[in-house]
Amino acid sequence: YQVRISIADPRNTVEAYGFSGQVRWNLSDSLSLTSITAYRGIEQDLRELKVGRPVPHLTYDYATHARIVLPDALRPRPVIVLEGILVLAEESLRRIMDIKLFIDTDADVRILRRLRRDLKERGRSYDSVEKQYLESVRLMHLEFVEPSKRYADLIIPQGAQNNVALDAVIARIQAMVAAQSVAPGPLATKA
């Protein structure tokens, strides 16, 4: 029912459950040329999906640090979810979005999730995770992620535990999908 595009680790990748690109972040230069190029790829894929055309299904392999093309293309669906900590920081992506959400999670929860993921799924050491967090992740969160929430249509505290906000978002998406099925073409409703 949906296509899900995920932008994960802003320091290393623009990763998609369907699109991925290598990104090198330079805090002094804000968004680097490489990151902008990666976002343009995502922007183009979103535009193609919204007009009903399939796009290549790419993913990022953390073991080889490379993009992998999966055999099946991503096909258009009534709902496209673009997720990632920096999607609201990029104006060109915001212009394409019908609803802009910011899931506000406490810092202690974020660091525990990152630590668990990097230790268990990526085989990193505690020291390497701590060093990366203190030298770049925390700084980038403060410089890019936190300020980007001002562009959200809705800021959802407590993430998936906030049933009231989730019910409102689900109802809004259902109404947009119903309107789309009545009027042909891509979603045009803005939140």
How would you summarize what this structure contains?
42% of the residues lie in helices and 18% in strands. With 191 residues, the chain is of the alpha/beta class.
Mean pLDDT: 75
Q: Which structural class should the secondary elements be placed in?
A: alpha/beta
Largest sheet: 2 strands, parallel
The count of helical stretches stands at 5
Oligomer: single chain
Uncertain spans, ≥5 residues at pLDDT below 50? 6-37, 185-191
β-strand percent reads: 15-25%
Shape: globular
- As a whole number of angstroms, the C-alpha radius of gyration is 17 Å
| Main sheet strand line-up | 1-6
What would your notes on this structure say?
By secondary structure, the chain is α/β, with parallel strands linked by helices. Helix 3 (107-120) packs across helix 4. The protein has five helices and eight strands; from the N terminus they run E-E-E-H-E-E-E-H-E-H-H-E-H. The strands form four sheets. It has a two-stranded parallel sheet with strand order 1-6. Mean pLDDT is 75; it is low at 6-37 and 185-191.
Label this structure with key terms.
two-stranded parallel ribbon; two-stranded antiparallel sheet; 191 residues; disordered C terminus; alpha/beta
Secondary-structure map with pairings?
Layout: E1 2-7, E2 13-15, E3 20-22, H1 33-50, E4 58-61, E5 66-69, E6 79-84, H2 91-96, E7 101-104, H3 107-120, H4 126-148, E8 154-157, H5 163-182
Parallel strand pairs: 1-6, 7-8
Antiparallel strand pairs: 2-3, 4-5
